[in-house]
Amino acid sequence: MNILVVLIPVSLGLGAMWLAWFLWALKNDQYEDMEGDANRILFDDEDDQPKP
Amino acid sequence: MTAACPACATMPEAGELAVGGMQISLPTIHCAACMVGVEQALSRVNGVISARVNLGLKRVRIETAPGVGAAACIAAIRAAGFEALELDTGALGVEADATGRSLLISIGVSGFAMMNVMLLSVSVWSGAEDATRDMFHLISAMIALPAVAWAGQPFFSSAWGALRVGRLNMDVPISLALFAASWMSLFESINGGEHAYFEAGLSLTFFLLIGRYLDHRTRIAARSAARELAALEPSRADRITGSGIETVPLAQVALGDTLSIPAGMRVPVDGIVTRGSTTLDRGFVTGESAPVLAGVGDTLVSGEVNLTGPLEMRVTAVGEDTTLRRMAALVEVAENARNKYSGLADRAAAVYAPLVHILAGVALVGWWVYSGDLRLSINIAIAVLIITCPCALGLAVPAVSTAASGRLFRQGILLKNATALERLAEVDCVVFDKTGTLTDGRAAAQAGLSGDELAVLKALALSSSHPVARGLLAGLPVEVVPAVLDDLEELGGNGVSATWNGVPVALGRGAWLGCIGNPSLKIGDATCHLATGEHMRLGVAEAVRGLKAAGIDTMLLTGDTSAAAKRIAARAGIMDVQSDMRPEEKVAVLERLRAQGKKVLMVGDGLNDTPALASAFVSMAPASAMDVARVVSDMVLLNPDVAVLPDAILLARRAKKRIVENFVTAAAYNAVAIPLALLGFCTPLMAALAMSTSSISVLLNALRVRA
Predict the structure, then answer these.
(1) Nearest chain A Cα to B97, which residue?
(2) Is the pLDDT reported for residue B557 higher than 80?
C-alpha cells in the first residue's frame, strides 16, 4: 500500500494541472467565440503556401 | 484572413477597444464563408488595421486608423452581401461578464475537487477498510471542505438572502444539504465512520453550478441583446456653433443649443423650430401617416421625421425629459406589471423546496424516535436531503432554454426576456401590424415610362428625401442616368418641381399636379401615374401559412386605410383585418382577445404599436423598428425573413415539452431513491449514482432541442 504515497499526490497533481490549464484558458479569452474559432480552422487562405 | 495574427486576438489586450475601434452587428452571418467574406471585404477598406468577426455574437470588431468612419466599413460589408448595423460602442459598454467568469472558475474548482474525491471514494466503495478508509476520508475532507466552502458561495449567499426576509427558495435546501453533508461527513471521518458524503456534496455543487451558469448565460445574453439594441442607430446631432456645424453625440446636446435637422433626419430631441419650414412625419408618435406642415415657432417632438426642408431648432428638452424617453419610461412601467409571469421553474421550486425539508425532517425525527440513535438518524436525514436535492431540477430549465435560445438566435430571433420562451410556447394568436412589419415602404418598379421620363423621374426623386421619393428611387434601375435639372424647388407636403431643358417638370401628390394618380410625374402638361406599392416583407405568406398549420390564428391591426390593409391581408392570407386603428384601439382589441382567453403574440414596429406591444402576452419587433418598440418587446426579429416565426413558436413549444419531460425524469429518479433513503438503505454510492445519472439524462434530453 506504500504506493499510495506516490499515487495520491500524482493524481492530485494531474488534477491541479488540469485546473491551472482551465483557469489559464478562461483568463485568456479562449472561450470568447467558440463557434467562430471552430469555423476558423476551415479557412484555407491561411497556410496554403510554404513559409518563405 | 485579415486579423493581424490569429494569436493576437486571444491576448487580453485585444479585449479592450482601441482608439478608432468600432463594432458592427452582422445579423445574417452564419458560417466560415461569411466570416471570410466580411473580413476580406473589410481588409480592402482604406484605413482598416484589423477586423475580427465574432460568430457567436454575430459582430465584427474593427480597428481603424483615426478618422476612418463606420460608413465606409458598413458600405464594404453590405457590398459583400451581408447586412450590417453600426453599434454605438458607448452604449454597448464594456462587456466584461465578471459573474459568468467567476461561476466558470467555481465550476472548474468544484469539478477538479469532485474528480479527485470521486477517485478516493471509488476505492472506499470497492472495499477499503479501517485505516485506509479513514485516511481516504480525511484526504477527501481536506479537498472537499475548502472546495465546497468556496465554490458553493453563490448558493449560500442566495439562500441567506432569502432566509433573511423569511422566504424559502431552492438555494435553502441546497445550502442546508451542502452544509450538513460536509460537517456530518467530517465528523464521521474523524470518528472512523463508514459513510462520508464528500463526493455527493461536491457533485451536487458541480452540477448545480452548471445549471446556474447556463441560467446566467441566458440572462446575460438577453441583457447584452437589450444593450446591443440600444446601441443600434447611434444617436448624433448636428449642432450649429459660431464656427459652423459640428456633429456631436446626443449626450452632449444641451438645453438652448441650436441644432440643424437636414431633410430626412429624425428629430433627436424636443425643441422649437427657429428657421425653415417643412413637413413632418409624425407617424411614429401619433400613428397618423399624413405629413404635417411645420414652420418657425412650431414645436418638434423627438421621434418625428423631417421630410422635406432643412430646419434649425432650439433645444427645449434633452435626455430623459424628451417626449420619446418619457413615453418609453411609461411603457416600461406597464411592462413591469406584465412581467409577473411565473415560469415553470418558479412553480416547481415553490412546491419542491418545502417538500425537501419536510422529508428530511420526517426522516430525522422518525428514525430518532424509532432507534434512539441520533448519529444514525442524522446520517439518514442527510442522505434524504442529498437525494432529494434539486440537482436535476436546477438543470432542467436552464439547459433547455440555453439550447433553445441559441437555436432561435441562429434563426435571427433575439430573446430579450428570460420568460419569453415559455410564454411564446403558449401563444395561440398572432397579431401583426402592417407598415414596417408585414411591408416595407419600398416602391415597385415603374412600367411604361420612356427613357427620358425615367431620367427626369430619377433626378427629381434624387433631390427629395421624402420616403415616397426614396421608395421610387429604390424601384428605378441603376443604369438610368439622372437628367440635368434647373430651378429645383421642394414644396413642403406637395413634391418637387424643376425645369428640364426649359420644360417645367414636377413630381409629387396627384392633387397638387391636377391628376388622380398618387404620386405622379408631370413633364410639361403630360402627367403620368407612378406605380408605388408596398413591398411585402420576405416570407410573410409562408409565415401565415405555417401559423395556420400550427393551429394559430392570425390578425392584422393597422392604422392605415381599409383598402390598403385588405390588399396586404389578401396577399398575406390573413382573414381577420381591422383598419383605421388608433394606438389605444389596438390595445382595446388585445384586451378583448385576452378576455376571450387568447394568448397573443403582437408583432409591430412603430411608436403607435408600442402600447399594444407592451400589453400583449408576448411581443416581437423587427430590428428595423423604432427603438422604443424594440425596448418594450420580448423578442427582436433580426432576420429580414418573417417565415421563421412559425418555426420559432414550434421550437418554443418543443422546448417547453422538454422542460416538462425533464421535471418528470428528475421526479422519477427521486420517486425511486427517496423511499430507499427514508428506509435507511441509501449509501453514498447510491446517492452519487442517482444524482449523476439524473443530471446527465436531463442534460442529454435538453440537447435534443438543438437538433
Answers:
(1) A32
(2) yes
B52 pLDDT band, cuts 50/70/90, is confident
Res B707: pLDDT: 67
> Looking at the complex, does the CB of residue A52 fall below 8 Å from at least one CB of chain B?
no
Question: Which CATH class name applies to B8-87?
Answer: alpha beta
Q: Look up the CATH number of domain B236-333.
A: 2.70.150.10
Q: B523-534 in b/e burial notation, b at 16+ Cβ within 10 A?
A: beeebbebebeb
For B252-302, how does the pLDDT look when each residue is reduced to its tens digit (9 = 90+)?
Answer: 788 888 888 877 677 778 888 888 877 777 655 554 555 677 888 888 877
A3 reaches B (C-beta below 8 A): no
pLDDT band at B150 (very low <50, low <70, confident <90, very high): very high
What backbone phi and psi angles, to 5 degrees, belong to B382? -65, -40
Q: Would the pLDDT of B97 be above 50?
A: yes
The CATH number that domain B413-439+537-638 falls under is 3.40.50.1000
Whether A10 and chain B come into contact, CB under 8 Å, resolves to no
Assigned CATH class of B451-533: alpha beta
Find the angle CA(B13)-CA(B15)-CA(B19) to the nearest 5 degrees: 80
- Contact predicate B192/B75, CB 8 Å: no
Is there a contact between B92 and B26 (Cβ–Cβ < 8 Å)? no
Which range has highest mean pLDDT (A47-51, B20-24, B276-280)? B276-280
Stretch(es) of chain B classified as CATH 3.30.70.100:
8-87
Q: Contact, B154 vs B206, CB < 8 A?
A: no
Q: B684: Cβ–Cβ under 8 A, 6 or more apart, which residues?
A: B121, B125, B195, B196, B197, B199, B200
Cα–Cα distance measured from residue B175 to residue B353, given in angstroms and rounded to the nearest whole number: 12
Distance of CA B514 to the CA centre of its chain: 49
Share in percent of chain B as helix, strand, coil (round to 5): 55, 15, 30
Neighbours of B653 (CB within 10 A): 15
Asked, as a colleague might, if the bond just before B519 is cis with ω within 30 of 0, I would say: yes
pLDDT digits (tens, 9 = 90+) for B661-702: 988 888 888 888 888 888 888 777 888 788 888 888 888 888
Q: Does A42 touch chain B (CB under 8 A)?
A: yes
Residue B507 and residue B496 in contact, taking contact as beta carbons nearer than 8 Å: yes
Q: Could you tell me the end-to-end alpha-carbon distance of chain B, in angstroms, rounded to an integer?
A: 31
CB-nearest to B112 from A1, A18, A42 is A18
- When pLDDT is averaged across residues B553-561 and rounded to a whole number, the result is 82
Residue whose C-alpha cell is 400613428: B287
Q: What does the longest C-alpha to C-alpha distance in chain A come to?
A: 58
Q: Which of A1, A4, A15 sits opposite B115 (nearest CB)?
A: A15
Check A12 against B116: CB less than 8 A apart.
Answer: yes
- CA–CA distance, B362 with B383 (Å, rounded to integer): 12
> What are the distances in angstroms from CA B485 to CA A8, B325, B499, B504?
90, 42, 6, 10
Mean predicted lDDT score pLDDT of chain B: 78
Residue in A21, A31, A32 to test binding to B, most B beta-carbons within 10 Å: A32
Where does residue B116 rank: exposed (0-12), middle (13-18), buried (19+ CB within 10 A)? buried
Q: CATH 2.70.150.10 spans which residues of chain B?
A: 236-333
